């Protein structure tokens, strides 16, 4: 619906009409104040917002959907105090430190490729990698490349310049380092490192020529204003990909009693993030099963999402990979063909 179709709709739909010209037609993302308007849209305007976000995705990203699998090479025992994360060694959570051996990692990469995924991400729960972990990552990359043709991404915490250069030299396609939340809310969620430290790693990754995957975790108690702030800050960083996570409160963490985010608010956020970043890969990540369910997952794929993590996450269960892949077929959304970019 546009204002021209129905002048009486100008009220809550005015920001969508603005976005149609600014984002859809001109490819210019909405600014922070405009994003707040999208996040404040009434329920009756949500279908129109999702439809517009879907049109933006098709025009500026194409119809392909990118599929990725992730696996942890080190789970638990992290020294940081990210309040949402059960892998922190500082909380009384049921996750304990476990290392995954290289043959299992190669097997997981093969299984991921068999789903049609183009990307396999190696994750470690650490503040940043030490020499031992970097050596293990190098060995893992070599063994995976020998066994299967798939892009390799890494998420290893905060990096030094030397480590950034090493990963780029080893052919790491993409590096994941999430901002998680808005600068103004960050101290409420993490105290053992700063927003600026995370941002520094992100900038070094981009400068080294790797693609930057930098995501968000919403539903942690932040305000709508801070949600808009985060979307705008991510847009300014210009990452290649933004994984969009929704808090799944984990036992033993400081956020274990946080109320689960409302599904309609999650869909408004999906639309807003797409309208903030019209050309960015916007990936479904953790928590969508709990926050959105099957119907909401479908709505998000028709509302701006153009990438999916299939299978399980690091410490929580996801949807079966076949469920997501079957849904993509049902929606006539082609899976992006594999391309070795590095």
How would you classify the helix and strand content by structural class? alpha/beta
Proportion of residues in β-strands? 5-15%
Low-confidence stretches: 93-98, 312-317, 338-342
Give the total of beta strands: 10
Whole-number radius of gyration?
A: 19 Å
Alpha-carbon distance between the termini?
43 Å
Order of helices and strands: HHHEEHEHEHEHHEEHEHEHHEH
- Total count of helical runs of at least 4 residues: 13
Assembly annotation: single chain
Helix amount, in percent? Answer: 40-55%
Q: Roughly what is the average pLDDT, rounded to an integer?
A: 87
Q: What shape does the CA trace take?
A: globular
Keywords, please?
10-stranded mixed sheet, 10 strands, 342 residues, disordered C terminus, alpha/beta
3D structure, described in words:
The chain is α/β, with parallel strands linked by helices and 342 residues long. It is built from 13 helices and ten strands. The protein has helices at 10-25, 32-39, 46-61, 102-114, 131-147, 161-169, 186-189, 195-207, 224-237, 263-276, 288-291, 293-301, 321-330; strands at 66-75, 98-99, 119-124, 151-155, 174-176, 211-213, 216-218, 241-246, 281-284, 307-309. Strand 7, helix 9 and strand 8 form a beta-alpha-beta unit. Helix 1 (10-25) runs parallel beside helix 3 (46-61), helix 2 crosses helix 9 and helix 2 packs antiparallel against helix 10 (263-276). The longest helix has 17 residues, at 131-147. It is globular. The model is unreliable at 93-98, 312-317 and 338-342 (pLDDT under 50).
